[in-house]
Amino acid sequence: MAATGEETDGRPSWLVRKIRGLLLDISGVLYNGSEGGGEVIPGSVEAVEKLKAAGYKVQFCTNEDQCTREQLVHKLARFGFKLLPTELHAPSPVARKLLQERNLRPLLLMHPGGLAEFEGMDFLNPNCVVIGGAEDQFTYERMNKAFRLLLNSDNPVLLATGCGRYYRSGSNLLLDGGPYTKALEFACDVKAEIVGKPAATFFLAALEGIHVSPEDAVMIGDDIVSDVGGAQACGIRGVQVRTGKFRPEDENHPTVKPDGYVDNLAQAVDLILKYN
Amino acid sequence: MAATGEETDGRPSWLVRKIRGLLLDISGVLYNGSEGGGEVIPGSVEAVEKLKAAGYKVQFCTNEDQCTREQLVHKLARFGFKLLPTELHAPSPVARKLLQERNLRPLLLMHPGGLAEFEGMDFLNPNCVVIGGAEDQFTYERMNKAFRLLLNSDNPVLLATGCGRYYRSGSNLLLDGGPYTKALEFACDVKAEIVGKPAATFFLAALEGIHVSPEDAVMIGDDIVSDVGGAQACGIRGVQVRTGKFRPEDENHPTVKPDGYVDNLAQAVDLILKYN
């Protein structure tokens, strides 16, 4: 399929203004997850290499919170991606920074695989809750613990890594942290602060890391709301790939209109290298 | 404290129009629950007996879903109340009736103590979810099962016994079914049908059972929103007791204004017997 939103010379409208940096989603753009570990999306390894070789500043924006950045780099290396942990922008390190700045001691309602991102913090007498894709850790006992902590706080703080509804793990759909965040919000009459996508602070911090301003950047992702809509809300062009969780009905989304569509990351990069 | 909303002759304004029947909440009006089983609220046993002796039609409206009506009758008998299961109006039997009318096979996300109310139903290949105060049954595995069932339904049906946020059990606060209902609503983009209080259908069915019309009835309860507001929304006078979960700030509730306040059930009944 052709990239949409083309100008008469073949230049996509999202490339009319020059871009200097890119934010790339990982799952659904670089690879598709599955029970056995997943598979690379064809052309993505080469696309990332071509971007870097051409001098573009790139940051990888993910809401992954079930492993550390180091583990994610190793996982991606198995598919052929040569990334550094510092090129990854993930919610847990951002949450950690927020907690330290505000002198907060977290109760972590998180997946065990991602806990190492909070290593060395003070967990005694917690005074806030950090919630993520905790899976089996969402026991009634732990939910009650988080609920009581928030209910008894004068100034309750609930940080959420994201607000995803569910995700696919192999042949199964699993509840993400979003529904459990809604449960705690309702129980304690609090509003969670989203740390990861689609929070504007998250995208802007990623761009700060590569010294690119929003109007000079493009976010490429498969999630119409979290990736594309989130980026657009803070002045970053949002381009939707037709890989990962993309579904044809996304092209008629009631509120989010991407700046452009591409079949996959490889096509996006070819267009950038040709027209930018 | 005096009953509020008094007319000049001492008659409370909620007794200006004659009443024929009463809906009484149980927990917080007849007794206060606690870890050891709870304790009777002084004067309540005699108040119920006086009402019945005076010929009033009475139905007991509860969102209790963690035991059967028979078990609740036995529990109340230990406090001195002589009630029959048919005098209790509880959400599980209402849910059962709804399921049968609509030919639905439920996945029950309920407390084991209340399952007997659904005995003999068809649970094979469930096509809807009934959710209540399931406590430890709110495992990640069971929540995922309910979520997938709803997500895969063309016409998803989620019945909730109530929408309580939490309740006290002894010295502990425990999450009620409401937060978990919100979690499933968010995950599957569905709206739950509340079966128990504050649903209008619940109050009206209780009155139908005693052949009393809403304008001839009073609901007496300790929950400003679920008992008082719910009853008022379907034309039943709502009277708030200052027992159970009542808190002084309830008297300044932003949206619900009770038709009257009483210190406890005994005072309400004395006023009824004197002025009605």
From TrEMBL, chains A, B:
Its EC number is 3.6.1.1. Keywords: Cytoplasm, Hydrolase, Magnesium, Metal-binding, Nucleus. It comes from the Eukaryota. This is Phospholysine phosphohistidine inorganic pyrophosphate phosphatase. Pfam families: Hydrolase_6, Hydrolase_like. It comes from Desmophyllum pertusum. Its cofactor is Mg(2+). Phosphatase that hydrolyzes imidodiphosphate, 3-phosphohistidine and 6-phospholysine. Has broad substrate specificity and can also hydrolyze inorganic diphosphate, but with lower efficiency. It is found in: Cytoplasm; Nucleus. It is an enzyme of class 3 (hydrolase). One of its GO terms (cellular component) is nucleus. The keyword Kinase does not apply. Belongs to the HAD-like hydrolase superfamily. It catalyses: diphosphate + H2O = 2 phosphate + H(+). The keyword Hydrolase applies. Gene3D superfamilies: HAD superfamily/HAD-like. GO terms for molecular function: inorganic diphosphate phosphatase activity; metal ion binding; phosphatase activity.
